[in-house]
Amino acid sequence: MVAMTERTSNACCCVMPTGTTARAAAIAIQHYDRDDQGELAVLTVLFHTETEMEDSASYADRLEHALAAKTDRMDNVELKQLKDDCKLFQSAFQGLYGVLLKKGLIHEDPYKYDLKISEVTTPPEGSFAESEKLDQMCIRLSQYESYLDFLNNYYQFSIDFMTMGRIKRLASLIKYFAFTQFTDNSPHVNTRYFSELVSLVRKGTDPLSAGIVNEGLLQLDKTSRKIFEVLKDLSLLHKERCKLELRRIATDVLGLKRDDVITHQEEAIRKVRQKYAEVAGDKPFYPELAAEVLKEDFSSEGESLRDDIIKHLEVAELKGKGNTVERNFKTAVLEGARVVIGIGFQLEDAVRKLEENQALLESMDRSMLTKIKRALREMFGKKGEHVIHEVEYLDPVSSERKNEALDYTAFSAEVAKRAQSLVALVSKTGAAYRRMEGSTEEIIYKFLAKSIEDLQSYHRKLSALDEFYQGVIDDPALKTKIRNIRMELGSIKNAIIKGNQKRHEYISQKEELEQMKRLGIKDA
Questions:
Q1: Which residues, including other chains, have CB under 8 Å from residue 103's CB and lie 6 or more apart?
Q2: Which stretches of 364-520 are assigned E, i.e. beta strand?
Q3: N or C terminus of the chain: which is more exposed, having fewer CB within 10 Å?
Q4: How many angstroms separate the Cα of 5 from the Cα of each of 10, 48, 482, 486?
């Protein structure tokens, strides 16, 4: 392509090769003028066009693919390792704690069993008088051990369970004592006094206790660093998930202009917040993440920022992991059962949101007859009639849209009851889980298979109800109050996939064993 403009004294020629509509095309501008001797002089200036950025929707698709791969990898590899590291961390701490108790440097907290724990948190961090040092350290060390015990016995190490709030609490617990900089002159009061107690053992005359302490400190330093690395990756994953959701339901829909975003960023964030609230309801909005999304989509450095994010989410190939065969069949099927058990909380959330949507739908019917019927039912203490909704869903077998008359009342009660039964199994120390754990692998397999079958049915019907409420509630005043259950549906789908993986793993192991027996291999 050649563009030329002629004037009396000089001419300007702009030349751009074909095919340069890529991200950084160069334009060579040759300016012809006469020098002092009347000869033509050529001055060439290179300009670069503004980087042509990938549109936000395309990047969102790329990001979603990267997040899916990273989520699968973290659930199956990193979070399992995190669970092992947390147990190792607890074991190393208990070694130190036990030595201090044995040496009489600290004593048991008499109120240890009065501590009621419902969530991971940290012992007190404030300062105290020198005269209270021993008592305070005994209390704090005892509580720290209790919180580690709660973490390893009650936490589910999965993406959906490990929310940003739990990540922060876990990070705070691990760094409560700074084992990566464990010295007597630490600026952190708890670390400093704990280190002073440990130093008394290390400088003592008992080499065995000193060896246990030194090995424990080395292990605590090593495992805490590994834990922080996984938590950092996990935080990035949740952060980018949230930003992806912002793109899908707000920034991509608003059609923001680059110049407006750059010159009036606060106004752009306000619009994003407003749109997000309309769709997401009472879910928290993070303006700093909205600012990051706008920067990645509209700033001159957006391309490099996006590439860095995708690079950090890339899944590296595992090496040397494919040659061992797990022979513990019961472990495989129990892991699958744990996956479907963990979805109980999401089922509860889904039912609660749909109940709110049903209440919105019922509030639209303000006829006198309806009010009278409702008043009479309440007066005589009778339950309401079953609510039937005509819903539409995609049949996974035929890939066709089908209609179904769904008994919402019965279905919501069934899902709520199933959710409660699953939640009751969450605690590994609970009676319900212990009974299941003590069952035969055949019984556990039947539980897993039935749970997967039920979850598939629930997912289909919950999806249909979600679409139904989005379409039937058309009152503008109520439209913004509709609760969607996309996140819960995603969690249920992931549980089905992972539960099925464990189920097929169990089946293939059993089949392999039978095949080896048929071949007469004694080691089978």
A1: 200, 201, 204, 206, 209
A2: 388-394, 401-407
A3: N
A4: 9, 21, 61, 58
In whole angstroms, what is the distance from residue 41 CA to residue 366 CA? 85
Beta bridge mates, 45: 29
- Greatest mean pLDDT among 90-104, 189-203, 271-285, 325-339 lies in 189-203
CA distance 453 to 440: 20
| Cβ pair 488, 318 in contact under 8 A | no
User: What pTM does this model have?
Assistant: 0.53
Residue where the block lists tokens 């000869």: 39
Query: Of 109, 101, 172, 198, whose CA–CA distance to 146 is shortest?
Result: 109
Torsion of CA 161, 75, 498, 70, to 10 degrees: 110
Counted residue by residue, the chain has a size of 524
Instruction: In whole angstroms, give the CA distance from residue 337 to residue 339.
Output: 5
Please tell me the distance from the alpha carbon of residue 522 to that of residue 260, in angstroms, as a whole number: 74
Distance (Å, whole) CA 335 – CA 442: 14
Q: Are 309 and 289 in contact (CB under 8 A)?
A: no
Query: Are 495 and 419 spatial neighbours (Cβ–Cβ below 8 Å)?
Result: no
226's CB contacts (< 8 A; 6+ apart) are 81, 85
Q: Is the dihedral angle over the CA atoms 100, 102, 105, 109 positive or is it negative?
A: positive
- Distance CA(4)–CA(32), nearest Å, equals 11
Print burial letters for 17-56: b (CB count within 10 Å at least 16), e (below 16). eeeeeeeebeeeeeeeeeeeeeeeeeeeeeeeeeeebbeb
Q: How far apart are CA 157 and CA 389, in angstroms?
A: 37
Q: Return the DSSP state at 156.
A: -
Q: What is the mean pLDDT of the chain?
A: 80
What is the per-residue pLDDT across 244-261, written as a single tens digit (0 to 9) for each? 999 888 888 888 888 888
